[in-house]
Amino acid sequence: MTTEFTPYASLAGGLLIGLAAVLLMLSNGRIMGATGILSGIIMPSSVAELSWKSILLMGMVSAPILLSLVFGYPAIVQVVSSTPMLVLGGLLVGIGGTLGGGCTSGHGVCGMARLSSRSIVATITFMISTTIAVYVLRHIIGL
Amino acid sequence: MRFLITYLIGLVFGTGIMISGMANPAKVLNFFDVAGSWDPSLALVMGGALLVTFFGYRWSFSRAKPLFANKFSIPTRKDLDTKLIGGSMIFGIGWALAGFCPGGALPAIGTGKIEVFIFIASLVAGIYSTKLARLSRKIAA
Question: Which of A30, A53, A99 has the highest number of chain B CBs within 10 A, making it the mutation to test binding with B?
Fold first, then answer.
């Protein structure tokens, strides 16, 4: 499935993601990492952790609802993977993100912005890994 | 007040994810499909987010402490280990299979799409089992 190049929407979205990361650091002193946020809700180490991470998640989940109700902006979620691929993908993302200590938001945005060597290595590693895996899945296996 | 601000930050993040295309697996996978239906949009998401965070963090860290906390909680580890690299490789394979990363999928829960719930359920299982395994190793040691 081809998708249209959306430079303005993607840049604006990126700026907002960055703004949220900065505001979370400025207010709570925390890294905006999605894996860490979900992980802290599943297995919280304190009531305080559970509460701020749950509230942050509620805000995230509200976004597509408010965008569509208030602005009539349609949420575009085009899933191209089969159910087994989604299941295996979710498992591997969860295992890999936890072992690697972060994902696209935690390492790729927050860690890279701090010029953390671990985050730079992690981001380069998963970007290469994803590129190779997409190539193999689409052009060798033909899924 | 703190909770309201935290909620609004989640809303800003989710809005950024939704309009950027990060919650759209077709778009995410096309970014990586350089040999096929390549869509470079996601480079602008990453670039825009990094630009704001790079300067915004510097400004934040120039302050004595966060507004609602006693200190900035920032990872301090600098070592590169096999878990970091192996984990990131596994993460990439999962991302390629599903087209969702955690940051893209969490706001997408609000769309109510069944595929998002399937991915999130597996994601939770993956995180939970890995943390459980780590915990039991710690107890055994």
Answer: A99
* ipTM exceeding 0.95, yes/no: yes
| Chain-chain contact of A10 with B10 (C-beta, under 8 angstroms) | no
Nearest CB to B45; choose among A10, A78, A137: A10
Q: Is the pLDDT of residue B120 over 90?
A: yes
Per residue in A50-77, pLDDT (tens digit) is 999 999 999 999 999 999 999 999 999 9
Say which amino acid occupies A31.
Answer: I
Distance of alpha carbon B33 from alpha carbon B20, whole angstroms: 18
The helix/strand/coil state of B7 is helix
Residue B64 CB partners (closer than 8 Å, separation 6+) = none
Residue A89 tokens read as 């993908």
Number of domains in chain A: 1
Spans of all domains in chain B: 2-140
Give just the sign of the alpha carbon dihedral B87, A38, A16, B35. Answer: positive
Residue in chain B lying closest to A51 (CA):
B3
Q: Which residues constitute the domain of residue A53?
A: 7-140
Q: CB under 8 Å to B40, separation ≥6 — which residues?
A: A5, B31
